# Entry
Amino acid sequence: MTLSDTRAQVNEAEPLRKLGVELELGGHRTETFSGADLIVMSPGVPPEQPVVASARAHGVPVIGELELAARWLRGRMVAITGTKGKSTTTALTGRILEAAGFRVTVGGNIGAPLSAQVAESTPESVHVIEASSFQLEQIETFHPWIAVMLNFSPDHLDRHPTVAAYGAAKARVFENQDANDWKVINADDPAVLELARKGRAQTRLFSMRGAIESGTAIEGDWIVDRAKQQTTKLVPLDAIHLLGPHLVNDVMAAATVGAIAGAAPAAMTAAVDAFHGLEHAMELVAEVGGVRFVNDSKATNVDAALHSIESFESGLVPIIGGRFKGGDLRLLREPLKKRARAVVAIGEAAPLVKDALAGAVDVREARTFESAVADAFALAKPGGIVLLAPACASFDMFRDYAERGRRFKEEVRKLA
# Structure
């Protein structure tokens, strides 16, 4: 077994050598790839690299980590994908199933990789998996019992060549399902309905707008399960403690999985009531001098930032920018015009943010992240809200969105 990495050094070098793994560091050798029996790609590595193309030309199979792990799991899989809301839905689904008595592991694109769950997998296990487009584009036999698609909008266009290619990667979550499986579909999103159209699994819809005869909907103060014979109350809306009305959509998706699995409404409600969201996802950080600070560092695309912004009525000062992944920043113009006092632009995308929002809202460019938080605080006084909703990746300034979110909270603590 060989690990090939472009980095000259990796932290795991010595433990890997002790396991008998050969290390090829500082670059990829074509001979290594072309002579391999199998290549397993990390999700973050673009699959179009010349050495990978050469290996494929020599008949070497190429798969991703998700595919490799799934081949060895003994339990059933629940795979959750979509452009936004995956982590929240995955975490809550795991808690609902656990409260209902299932043996649950949660991972994939959130927390531990799926391969870390193989050793503990049993026939009774339910593996709840956050699945990204990067992971799904490298599957072959990956076969979830329940596949969830939350929503779809342009994203990761710095990696996928087109929106259609991005959508095709997402839709692969349904590819190997059969008539004994389930696909959980957002009936309010036409793009999701189209992407799921060819799947062979049974369809279960959920809809916040409620325009469905059968599936998960909202009636009065409840999330309910509508069926032809009766309507069953699943979760009261007052049990949801998440900031932002769009997150109700994620709760509905998780409750739908619970209903398919046979979780009792009482177990669902207990899990939802105890769930206060994830770090960096519409996380209320603090109130300083009458100004609230909200960390939505996971809003790494335009659509996610749009939903964050629309969660507030007025007095808003968003921090937007980073490494742009594609999409149309102009979609933020009208929502910001109605709600924002100003916008603070950061990172590589700051000029794009200024151009896209010119004439709709005052945009101030910050040279450092520290000054961005301080400037937003000053602009939000009195009684406003500072919202970190970048609409961009973090890699120009930080290791990942989590480091960006933690830095935001550190700067807020300094202000306090």
